[in-house]
């Protein structure tokens, strides 16, 4: 990254000439027969350093780490391009961006700052937090009833405007964000299921996953300010909505840094495996609670009923009280069986949904890290083949990419901690409430026999 040192000497704002938080369109003058035709846009990334020279050294370390002993001598201006034109590095536009073969046309007003604070490289925190609620799924029709679909209402605390969006609109938005912000991990949407798509359980499940998805977008320092996202949650006019969609579609899209990326890549694998194990274990519990556990409690209820019937033939004065106590016990046991099934849905399903959302988000990380790695590799290929000035321009673009990746890594780690903390807290509280309710019920049953 390049920029100007402020007069204060203690802090500096580095205005990146070319950022790569988002991609957009190639200008007409920059189109070449062999160049990637994917659209690119400018990210206008700002990096703010806080503190003293230690942070400046960190920035230098990131820049130096992209060099593998190349010379600063002037050389041939020819740089070998990636032979595989279908690789993500090429298709995403990263190669053309690093080589300076695309003129980045960023959207005015959309700038994103990266802050270096001690060992952390992070996006500038959100200045104004807001929330967005997904609610009121409703079956609607068009073409005089020939086509039906489920629409969800979205209401943001930012504008208090309620809009109606279909699943296909969420799917479109996901594609736009994925193409526009190639260095950011976009959370997953619920799986698209056709069979039984209007069943209440499926609609409710999809609503919960969409709510998790919306929550993650609102909490992301970059995505929450994206023009296409804000248009998605605020536009109510049909004509403006379509115009905004067309506009969005038109703007398509250190050993230090490498050590951090490698460390994060290893953590992604372990996190993914851990989430998978948690999902499997919870899935086993759900099947047990819905099947054998519920069945056994309700079979015990029938056993209490049978035992109660055996007292009907007795003429003993206490027999009636025993019959009543046993029947009430049977009723409670049957209800506990129902409660186990409800517990698996109401208390365990939210955990499964959170794990699905987080696992789907981190699964996008390897592609991001691979693109970053290839950007560094491309820079190293250029060293010694270009003039010092041209090599420096490429290095600045690669540095910008590194800062974006490090900031996104920090955001994902922060999100992981918060997601697991909130999910486990709510799950264990519900577990305690469920078993406390069962203990209270068993105590009440015991009192029935105090006669």
TrEMBL record:
Gene Ontology MF terms: phosphatidylinositol binding
Gene3D superfamilies per the UniProt record, alphabetical: Arfaptin homology (AH) domain/BAR domain, Phox-like domain
Keywords carried by this UniProt record: Cytoplasmic vesicle, Membrane, SH3 domain
Domain of life: Eukaryota
TM region(s), chain numbering: none
Ranges for domain PX: 130-240
GO terms, biological process: endocytosis; endosomal transport; plasma membrane tubulation
Compartments it resides in: Cytoplasmic vesicle membrane
GO CC terms in record: cytoplasmic vesicle membrane; plasma membrane
CDD domains to which the protein is assigned, alphabetical: PX_SNX9_18_like
UniProt xrefs under InterPro entries: AH/BAR_dom_sf (IPR027267), PX_dom (IPR001683), PX_dom_sf (IPR036871), Sorting_nexin_WASP-bd-dom (IPR019497)
Lipid biosynthesis listed as a keyword: no
Pfam (any one): PX
Keyword Membrane among record annotations: yes
Cross-referenced PROSITE patterns: PX
UniProt biased composition (Polar residues): 42-51
Record-stated family: Belongs to the sorting nexin family.
Protein name: PX domain protein
Source species: Ancylostoma caninum
């Amino acid at each position: 990254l390049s920029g100007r040192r402020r007069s204060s000497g203690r802090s500096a704002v580095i205005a990146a000439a070319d950022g790569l938080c988002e991609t957009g369109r190639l200008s007409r003058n920059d189109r070449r027969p062999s160049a990637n035709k994917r659209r690119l846009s400018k990210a206008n990334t700002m990096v703010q350093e806080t503190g003293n020279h230690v942070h400046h050294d960190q920035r230098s370390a990131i820049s130096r780490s992209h060099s593998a002993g190349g010379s600063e001598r002037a050389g041939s201006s020819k740089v070998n391009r990636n032979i595989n034109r279908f690789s993500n590095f090429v298709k995403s536009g990263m190669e053309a961006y690093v080589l300076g073969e695309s003129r980045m046309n960023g959207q005015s007003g959309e700038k994103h700052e990266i802050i270096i604070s001690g060992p952390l490289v992070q996006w500038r925190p959100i200045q104004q937090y807001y929330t967005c609620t997904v609610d009121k799924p409703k079956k609607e029709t068009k073409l005089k009833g020939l086509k039906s679909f489920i629409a969800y209402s979205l209401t943001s605390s930012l504008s208090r405007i309620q809009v109606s969006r279909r699943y296909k609109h969420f799917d479109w938005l996901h594609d736009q964000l994925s193409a526009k912000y190639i260095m950011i991990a976009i959370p997953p949407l619920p799986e698209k299921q056709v069979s039984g798509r209007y069943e209440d359980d499926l609609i409710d499940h999809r609503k919960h996953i969409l709510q998790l998805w919306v929550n993650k977008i609102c909490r992301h320092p970059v995505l929450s300010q994206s023009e296409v996202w804000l248009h998605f949650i605020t536009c109510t006019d049909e004509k403006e909505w379509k115009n905004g969609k067309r506009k969005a579609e038109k703007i398509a899209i250190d050993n230090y840094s490498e050590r951090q990326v490698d460390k994060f890549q290893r953590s992604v694998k372990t996190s993914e495996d851990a989430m998978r194990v948690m999902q499997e274990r919870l899935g086993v519990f759900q099947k047990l609670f819905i099947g054998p556990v519920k069945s056994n409690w309700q079979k015990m209820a029938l056993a209490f009923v049978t035992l109660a019937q055996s007292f009907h033939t007795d003429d003993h004065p206490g027999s009636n009280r025993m019959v009543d106590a046993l029947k009430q016990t049977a009723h409670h046991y049957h209800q506990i069986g129902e409660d186990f099934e409800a517990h698996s849905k109401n208390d365990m399903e939210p955990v499964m949904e959170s794990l699905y959302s987080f696992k789907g988000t981190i699964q996008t990380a390897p592609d991001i890290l691979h693109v970053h790695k290839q950007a560094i590799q491309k820079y190293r290929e250029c060293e010694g083949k270009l003039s010092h000035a041209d090599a420096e321009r490429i290095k600045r673009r690669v540095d910008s990419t590194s800062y974006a990746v490090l900031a996104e890594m920090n955001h994902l780690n922060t999100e992981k901690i918060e997601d697991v903390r909130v999910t486990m807290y709510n799950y264990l509280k519900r577990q305690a409430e469920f078993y406390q309710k069962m203990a209270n019920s068993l105590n009440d049953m015991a009192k029935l026999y105090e006669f």
